[in-house]
Write a structure and sequence with these properties.
alpha+beta, Muramoyl-pentapeptide Carboxypeptidase, domain 2, two-stranded antiparallel ribbon, 4 helices
């Protein structure tokens, strides 16, 4: 068990790739907001759903790549200062479900390890990132629906404005955690 009762997501154990976007500068704020060696962490019940999702992806010849998981409240405040739009970034005064340890941002990788085309990048704060866009190519819609199906069957729910964001049902009932990364 990690700080504040969080489980560290070990890529070998969970059969996932981990590339935390906010541990580096390849994100929409273009700077790291937590340590480069930050562990990927979730609450135990979210980690169990993630493991189910990873196994389902493997059965389809795919794998999951985790882009963000637990996010400290201080990191959430940085994101909010840069993008105070509740459609895409949770107001830290209300608390992010990432800061509760029950949300995960993911994409799908093909059997060759290449990310499937989802139509936009991770954290693309435009309507084009919303689920079920009729103006996207069929292959992109298929990839998004495949990810959605994998994550829903594993026990997560989706956020309509972000194809990459999944969280436990009733996420706001979980208390905020303040583990340092």
């Amino acid at each position: 068990m990690s700080p504040a009762g969080l489980v560290t997501i070990d890529p070998a154990e969970y059969l996932v790739e981990v590339d935390l976007a906010y541990a580096g500068s390849n994100n929409f704020v273009c700077l790291p907001i937590y340590a480069a060696d930050a562990p990927c962490m979730l609450r135990a019940d979210a980690a169990a759903c993630l493991k189910r999702a990873a196994l389902a992806a493997r059965r389809a010849g795919l794998s999951l790549k985790i882009l963000d998981a637990y996010r400290p409240p201080a990191a959430q405040e940085v994101l909010w200062r840069i993008c105070p739009d509740p459609a895409y970034v949770a107001d830290p005064a209300q608390g992010s479900n990432h800061s509760r340890g029950v949300a995960v941002d993911v994409t799908l990788l093909g059997d060759d390890g290449t990310a499937l085309d989802m139509g936009t990048g991770f954290d693309d704060m435009r309507e084009l990132s919303h689920h079920d866009r009729p103006d996207l190519p069929a292959a992109v819609q298929r990839n998004r629906h495949l990810l959605l199906g994998i994550m829903l069957q594993a026990g997560f729910v989706s956020l309509p404005t972000e194809w990459w964001h999944y969280e436990l049902p009733g996420a706001s009932a979980y208390p905020l955690l303040d583990a340092v990364l």
